[in-house]
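Protocol step 4 of 6: structure prediction from sequence.
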Amino acid sequence: MDFYTTAYVESQVSNQETWLFILLSVVLVSLLIIGILTLRNGFTSRYRDLTVILSLIVAFFLGFEYLEYSRIQNYLEDSSRMLTFLKSFSQNQNVPLEQLQVNSLKIRDDMILKVGNTYYAIDFNPEFTSYTLKRVYTISNVNRIIDTEKE
């Protein structure tokens, strides 16, 4: 069973769109440079084709971003909700955040929470504003811990 540390959940909230933003920025800067070269040398130059190609790439990225926007927002909301739950659990149970590990990156019923060497099944109300703990036992003690240092 895979368990995620609090640090990993936190990194997922903050670093989700970084690479796509960098790639889109590089394409936009390239389009700007090629556009300036096209205007300086006239529209009959070799830069005209590059401008058209980069414009189509930008249009593709914008369409892709539009389609992915709601999915990413839902994912960020789920990760943020998980982080809020872990911090609340840590404060309520007086357990350091470093000892908490979960088997899911989004809040769901029957999620397993590992506190040290103890496992709990978490059941939430329909609004995910309160929860109940139930101690559970694992059949196998072989677990994979996913942390930010290992990724």
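Step 5 (inspection) to follow. The two ends are 17 Å apart (CA to CA).
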